[in-house]
Amino acid sequence: MAVVDPLIELRGVNKHFGTLHVLQSIDLTVGRGEVVVVIGPSGSGKSTLCRAINRLESVESGEILIDGQPLPEEGKALARLRAEVGMVFQSFNLFAHKTVLANVSLAQIKVRKRKKEDADRRSRELLARVGLAAQADKYPAQLSGGQQQRVAIARALAMDPKALLFDEPTSALDPEMINEVLEVMQQLARDGMTMVVVTHEMGFARSAANRVVFMADGRIVEDRAPEEFFTAPRSERAKDFLSKIL
Ligand code: ADP
Ligand code: MG
Hints:
Helix content: 25-40%
InterPro entries: AAA+_ATPase, ABC_ATPase_HisP-typ, ABC_transporter-like_ATP-bd, ABC_transporter-like_CS, MetN_ABC_transporter-like, P-loop_NTPase
Keywords: Amino-acid transport, ATP-binding, Cell membrane, Membrane, Nucleotide-binding, Transport
GO molecular function: ATP binding
Structural class: alpha/beta
Strand order of the largest sheet: 6-7-8-3-9-10
Strand content: 25-35%
Distance between the termini: 25 Å
Organism: Streptomyces bikiniensis
Radius of gyration: 18 Å
Main location: membrane
Bound molecules: adenosine-5'-diphosphate, magnesium ion
Order of helices and strands: EEEHEEHEHHHEHEHEEHH
Largest sheet: 6 strands, mixed
């Protein structure tokens, strides 16, 4: 699809794990302010795609550009990239021995070199934004899974990222906690955050996504507006997948 103002661009990206061709000639452009939902069967390469965008995985060929810049190989430039493209995982990965506030402030101090007072002030703003102002001084174990995931989102936002990647952010949550996380993500989308979201939450895809990317066997099989994709999938793989989850 034509994208007006590209923020994330992948061109001809390939990667193998041993003999498994996990990313096969991936072309994907995400425009500034766009929300792209990535769906597809387990093992199709969705997580690897996200990790490649953040360079948690290297790729063998092709180009990945963030805001027009190629992904740096290593060092400080890579740390900066990771700050610019935040990632939220299925497991929240909070530091258990640090308070919620300290979890959100930590990378601001270490990576963004903010003073602790400034970082804490920003953290409190962001915790309020995700509905957790009252939980700042608690420890992760005192929070529900949905609250912990919202802390992880606040922590990612604290880097002032240009884009956020979400890899199945609600898959580890009890059903009653899924909506509170999706609502925060919906609000981010409305606020214009550029987001790539791997999820099986089709309601979210329908209401928040500008595009749905369907992956199977390491390939992007469809890349279309959600209504088109859900009402008239073109490929047999997508039809089969949708018949199993809808
Ligand atoms: P998805 O997120 O769509 O379920 P993944 O990107 O996690 O798919 O994985 C795609 C394929 O690559 C799977 O077959 C998986 O087993 C394999 N894979 C993922 N990570 C590794 C790894 N570090 N080493 C070897 N194989 C891997
Ligand atoms: Mg995955």
